[in-house]
Specification:
By secondary structure, this protein is α/β, with parallel strands linked by helices. The protein has five domains: 180 residues, Up-down Bundle (Methane Monooxygenase Hydroxylase, Chain G, domain 1), CATH 1.20.58; 102 residues, 2-Layer Sandwich (Beta-Lactamase), CATH 3.30.450.20; 70 residues; 162 residues, Histidine kinase-like ATPase, C-terminal domain (Heat Shock Protein 90), CATH 3.30.565; 143 residues, Response regulator (Rossmann fold). 49% of the residues lie in helices and 17% in strands. It is built from 20 helices and 18 strands. The strands form three sheets. Strands 6, 7, 8, 9, 10, 11 and 12 form a seven-stranded mixed β-sheet that branches. The N and C termini lie far apart (137 Å). The protein binds adenosine-5'-triphosphate and magnesium ion. The site of adenosine-5'-triphosphate has 23 residues, from helix 13 and helix 16.
Length: 707
Amino acid sequence: MPEQQIRHCRRNQKKLELAEQILDYSNRNLEISMEILMGGRKEIEPLAMEQAENSAAIAGLLQEMREYVEGEGDEERDLLEAAGAQWSRTLNYAQPLEPRMEGQRRFDTAAATANVILPHLLDHNSWKAFVHFLRAQADGSGTAENGNRDLTTRTRQLVRTHQEMKSAVAERKRMAERLSQLASIIELSTDAIVIYTLDGTIVSWNTGAEGVYGYSANEVLGRPRSVLSPPDQPDDLPATVATLKRGERIQRYETVHMRKGGKRIDVSMTMSPVKDGNDEMVGAAAITRDISDRKLLEKQLRQAQRMEALGQLSGGIAHDFNNLLSVIGGYCELLEPELPPDGVLHRNCEQIKKAGEKAAGLTRQLLAFTRQQVLEPRVLDLNAVVLDLEKMLNRVIGEDIELRTSLDRSLAAVKADRGQIEQVIMNLVVNARDAMPNGGRLTVQTANVVVDESFTRRHHPQAPGAYVRLSVTDTGVGMDTETQTRIFEPFFTTKEVGKGTGLGLSTVYGVIRQSGGHIWVDSQLGRGSAFEVYLPMVQESARHERSSAGADGATGGTETILLVEDEDALRELTRELLAGSGYRVLEASSPEKAIEAARNYRGPIHLLLTDVVMPRMSGPRLAQSLEAIRPEMQVVYMSGYMGFRQSQLPEPDAILLAKPFKREALLRKLREALALNLEGAGRTGAGRAKADPSSFARMRICGQTSS
Ligand SMILES: Nc1ncnc2c1ncn2[C@@H]1O[C@H](COP(=O)(O)OP(=O)(O)OP(=O)(O)O)[C@@H](O)[C@H]1O
Ligand SMILES: [Mg+2]
């Protein structure tokens, strides 16, 4: 055998040896992968290490082979590269098995078999084909020119087929991964993703759907989709299917669905067709979101806006009415003593006065609703208020209704006007009584509560925090939702004409809101109602005191009073009341005229009695500008309303007389203010105190108890 041929044979032999060693290592690595996969009792880590070492050995051997093949023809080099390309990535085989190595429970053996063992096997077989090729070369069967070419072609084909199969496996793996990603998106979605067949049978139900509807998959799969619709709602499936069949999408379609247990929820749905392999529509997929919270907020916002508008309207009316009613009532008071006590005129005058007082009462309620009432907030113990009222409440509700009180012994204090809170409780209790014409149970309850965001999300605009809750619950006729949205509006009543004014709850609403609190109602037709009042907790503790309606003898005086009121009739009346009680009155119909009068009058002016809201200059501004020339003068403001602009706010310590006022209230207030003058005489300058301008709480008020 010629020298050259012998070298050729040796080289072939050497290549074959190297290739067979690689095959052995590959074989062993396959075994290792199988062992790891089957999860036998063996420790996984040494196996993985051995596999890595084998892979490194393969890489070394391959490099050595490349050097041998260097001198050979292109075809053999190509074959080696095609069959051996994968060995540079051999370490990757172990990677998908890592979860198994880390002992994870959610390891998918079937997927690992497809994704790890199969590609490994295909690579291994490619190499095996190459080894066959080398073997044929070495034993001489492939030496003839034709035979060799034939073998090369077949080997290349084999290797290619293996690699193609491997790509297909990889593609399937990618698809499977995408599908599993999609599946986890569907599973993790908080939206309900539900698939229906064309006849409406539920065939797919994700975890989000369990959350939205409250049914588990087991409970609904195979059932008709009508289980999710309220019974009174027409079936829209045929229309939906027709729309989808036309190729139109249904996006963010809002409707009402029903949870397990019958609770209605507002939902927004997006629907798309589900098609089979032939592009035929076989069902519909619905992505449904529960938008009940959003709907509720929108409703509350709309309601709040309507209440705001109503408030402004009623505020304006009530303000003007106050002045007119002061005039009517006041003139009656002046007229009455002049008339023969047993005569018709006296009785007529009495009637006018009564009607005026009734109207004043209504106006006050309207003002309460607008939150512009003159309030006297104090630190209060609601339990004490309820206990003091209990006897009267029992009388009001009658014998057929059982009154239960459940008062939290450790109840925190609140800050509110005691008289107004009594009014709130009375109104709620009387409403409850009217809702139980055949008797029932009425519960008044107090509790400390901490309100969190999950609550405030459904109760706009209440803020999270610590509150004292007062609830009044009845077992009466209840209300439908339509009624519930309107009950706080002034003049809304369902009672027959003459039975209710519809101002009860609007007063309650205004008082509570003006006190920084909130009121909510929960009711169902035929199932009773629960009204819950939340007032912010305060840290101070309450002093126990009864409401101060005391009216000690109000007398007149002889001091000089500067009266400023732009409303002519009211000014004239007040002048008469004052003059009739002995006072000397300087009268001005505007702030400008008042300044002029104060300048020109020679004697002392003891008191300025002025309206708060006047054109061009407010009462407080007037008082300020008179301070320089009349430092000794006390000030009493008259106002029926607290909706002042910031620039019109009286001083925090100012003395305020609520309109409409009665003669007695006016006189009492004047004496109170003039007494300060006496006190102040010992001090320097006048007795007008200055204090924190943010506090309205300290205003002294009177005149509210008339009616
Ligand atoms: N506890 C309740 N149960 C059922 N419906 C109620 C209850 N409280 C109030 N309502 C409804 O709210 C409406 C308004 O109540 P509101 O107190 O404002 O006025 P009213 O009671 O009708 O009249 P008023 O209180 O001025 O005499 C009532 O007419 C009634 O329809
Ligand atoms: Mg009422």
